[in-house]
Design brief:
9 strands; binds nicotinamide-adenine-dinucleotide; Rossmann fold; elongated; alpha/beta; 3-stranded mixed sheet; 6-stranded parallel sheet; N-(1-d-carboxylethyl)-l-norvaline Dehydrogenase, domain 2
Length: 295
Amino acid sequence: MTDIGFIGLGNMGGPMAKNLVGAGHKVKGFDLGSAALETAKSNGVETVTSATDVLQGSGAVVTMLPAGEHVRSVYLGEEGLIAQAEPNTLFIDSSTIDVTSCREVHDAAAAAGHLMLDAPVSGGVAGADGGTLTFMVGGSDDAFARGEALFEIMGRNIVHAGGAGNGQVAKVCNNMILGISMLAISEAFTLGETLGLAPEKLQEISSTSSGSCWAMLNHNPVPGLVETAAANRDYKPGFAAFMMQKDLRLAQAAAHQAGVPTPLGAEAAALYTMFVKSGRGDLDYSAIIKMLQET
Ligand code: NAD
């Protein structure tokens, strides 16, 4: 069984590494935070004292880091993973990062004779813990064939989205749809109620009509309409608003880079930024309805 290196043992990476250990892999882990290292150790991860130490004996390395700058700093440069690894190492970056950094790291890995996959996830901490994440994977067929067994341990839905960076593209496009949908639902339910239409009636009608969408059926921002919604738990996340803001900003960066106008995506990014700046970034992303109701 392949020994695995794991860097970034936080809210997501910690449980993902734990599941790899549970499936019988020897996992060497590193994180800058001592609390994350301690937890990983108690979950059977062999902790090491630098990022490149995870490389020893590891045929594959998974990274789960906050943003593009962290990923670049860990992978690139003379002291980075790519320069220090044995040829033909498989790298899997599951962080959600900008497409440009992602493709730069892919190129560097390929030039050094390694295989690389970008494999951002959805499903949150519960999905990481339960091994039920969705992986959106970009990279070559060869790399995907080598990584697939690991994804199956950590996730349930695994989609090979195409070449380098396509996992990140899928992630930001999907979450741009989700953010815009949530704003549309929030506006419509607020307008309906203000005009005298009970939210229960609008849900009954729209959820089976042309206005229906995943966010309405699963995360409706009005309390009491959908059992699974964070609205019923004082908007405790779920999917935090600051993470939606991050993903919408990544979508905007990708759209600017590609020269593709995304006016609704831009407006959604601006509204979520306003919401986070109001001090409510830790609430679920559906709580944005409160801000719309205030204005
Ligand atoms: P987190 O902050 O809990 O964990 C990130 C970890 O990386 C931290 O423990 C930090 O100490 C470590 N780290 C940072 N720089 C490092 C370095 N140079 N070397 C070693 N360790 C380093 O974040 P998270 O919630 O686990 O999210 C990780 C990634 O997953 C992010 O890109 C996020 O957007 C994405 N994501 C998160 C969720 C979620 O619900 N939390 C859902 C989907 C995707």
